Each structure stands twice: as structure tokens, then as C-alpha cells.
């Protein structure tokens, strides 16, 4: 099957140095994505647009939040419900200096993600087989045992000088992420409780949402407040020239 955007200059324009990795990822999805239940039956010739470029729409928003996207190994991003790799695999390829946890409970999908991490040599990405609720409990437990006071030398133990991609969520000192990303995991009313408690102080959720973004935020006011949201915004996010833009919801916690 031929993807409408195969060999398009858009791919190198959007991905720059990561274009080669994205070509490999695309080929693997084309060959195995459907039989392994990672993409839909009608996605075969639109994998670039629907999945890979759509995920990359988050890149400028993350860039804007990073002190130094080229070198910052201290920033940690948790991608909740990564599934076939969206947006987590795409983002990890675009930000090789930032540490990503790809959080996914389904064994089959975790196996796929681990294969992709190896194939694309994403040394900054770790597959974490877990439900977000388990990580939230672990973070609460760490906060409780540290008396609510996060001793940065403890929380960062093993982080300084660690290789990007070491298992931050699997450490007993897990104290949350600077940024949480997600796509197509749950409506905002549910997503607030699944993602905001995973954030560190002043951390931000960046969720890819469709046209329903503003309505979902409005409906989830109570859940957002309950989970510490202090500001919310919806932004239109360009996918690529001549392609329909998508929407991004950004929520900051206190
Ligand atoms: C519809 S899929 C979307 C996958 C991918 N994000 C995408 O956009 O293609 C939802 C994913 O969220 C995962 N998921 C569901 N509940 C979860 C939870 N409580 N914690 C973490 N992941 C969850 C599922 O296993 C599934 O892979």
C-alpha cells in the first residue's frame, strides 16, 4: 500500500534529523501495524498524516516548555497510553536529549514499543508496563514517605549523570514528570484524574484532542480543579502545510 505522503518533502521539513527514524517507524507500521492491532483498517495509506505527523504536532508546544531542548536531560516526560507509539515514540525521536517514559498497560503493545525503541535506538525512552493509577499510587507513596517534602537529592538520585531512558517511573523515588503527554486515551473528565496527579509541581499536561477540545475542557471543570489545575488553554496545532490542523489542550497544575 502506498501512503499519500511517502517521499513527500514534508517529512524532512517536519522531522529534520529524526526523518530517517520516522521513515523506519512508518515502514514497520505499514508492514505490521494492522495485523498487530495498532492502527485501524482504513489507516494503511494515511499513517503519516493520521498518526506520525499528528503526533509531531506536539513538538512546538514541548519545545516552548523546555529550557534547552538540545541538552536538557533533567526534563522528564511521561506519555500515558502510548499504544502503537503515539505520540511517545515520535516525540522521543524528536527530542533525543529528553527522557521519556512510554506508559502502556497492554503486554502486546509494550512488546511492540520495546521493539520500536530498540529498532530506532531511542536510548532516551523507556517502556513502562503499567496503568497510570499504579504510578499515581507510587508517587503518593514516595511523597508520603518523604514527609511531603521532596528532597531533591533523593528524588534525583540516579538521575544526575544517568543515561536518558533509565526507568524513572520504576524507581522507588518516583516523584512525577515535568510534562505528561497523551492522545486518544480518555475524555477530559476522566483524563484529568489519570494524568494531572502524575505531574510535579507546576508541571503541564499536553493532550492531543480533536475539535472537541474546548467542549471537553468545559465539561471537565470540576475534575480539573479537583486535580490541581490552575490554568487551561486550547490551541490549534498545525500538522503540516496543506493538512488539517489538530487541537492541543494544555493544563498546568499548581
Ligand atoms: C485508543 S488507545 C490510543 C493509543 C495511542 N495513544 C494512540 O493515540 O494511538 C488508548 C491506549 O491507552 C491505554 N490505556 C487505557 N487505560 C490506561 C490507563 N489507565 N493507564 C495507562 N494507559 C491506559 C490502552 O491500553 C491503549 O493502548
TrEMBL record:
The keyword Cell membrane does not apply. GO terms for molecular function: rRNA (guanine-N7-)-methyltransferase activity. One of its GO terms (cellular component) is cytosol. It is an enzyme of class 2 (transferase). Its main location: cytoplasm. It comes from Scardovia inopinata F0304. This is Ribosomal RNA small subunit methyltransferase G. The keyword tRNA-binding does not apply.
Amino acid at each position: 500500500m502506498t501512503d499519500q505522503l511517502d517521499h513527500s518533502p514534508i517529512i524532512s521539513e517536519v522531522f529534520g534529523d529524526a526523518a530517517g527514524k520516522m521513515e523506519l517507524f512508518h515502514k514497520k507500521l505499514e508492514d505490521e501495524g494492522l495485523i498487530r492491532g495498532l492502527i485501524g483498517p482504513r489507516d494503511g495509506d494515511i499513517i503519516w498524516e493520521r498518526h506520525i505527523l499528528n503526533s509531531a504536532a506536539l513538538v512546538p508546544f514541548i519545545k516552548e516548555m523546555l529550557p534547552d531542548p538540545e541538552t536538557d536531560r533533567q526534563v522528564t516526560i511521561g506519555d500515558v497510553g502510548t499504544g502503537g507509539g503515539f505520540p511517545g515514540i515520535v516525540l522521543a525521536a524528536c527530542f533525543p536529549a529528553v527522557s521519556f517514559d512510554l506508559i502502556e498497560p497492554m503486554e502486546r503493545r509494550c512488546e511492540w514499543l520495546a521493539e520500536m525503541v530498540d529498532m530506532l535506538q531511542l536510548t532516551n525512552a523507556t517502556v513502562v508496563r503499567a496503568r497510570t493509577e499504579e504510578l499515581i499510587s507510587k508517587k503518593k507513596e514516595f511523597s508520603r514517605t518523604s514527609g511531603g517534602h521532596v528532597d531533591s537529592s533523593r528524588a534525583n538520585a540516579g538521575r544526575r549523570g544517568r543515561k536518558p531512558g533509565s526507568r524513572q517511573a520504576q524507581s522507588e523515588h518516583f516523584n512525577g514528570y515535568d510534562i505528561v503527554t497523551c492522545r486518544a486515551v480518555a475524555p477530559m473528565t476522566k483524563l484529568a484524574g489519570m494524568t494531572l496527579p502524575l505531574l510535579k509541581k507546576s508541571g503541564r499536561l499536553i493532550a492531543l484532542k480533536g475539535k472537541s477540545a474546548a467542549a471537553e475542557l468545559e465539561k471537565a471543570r470540576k475534575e480539573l480543579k479537583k486535580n490541581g489545575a490552575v490554568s487551561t488553554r486550547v490551541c490549534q496545532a498545525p500538522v503540516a502545510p496543506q493538512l488539517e490542523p489538530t487541537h492541543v489542550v494544555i493544563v498546568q497544575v499548581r
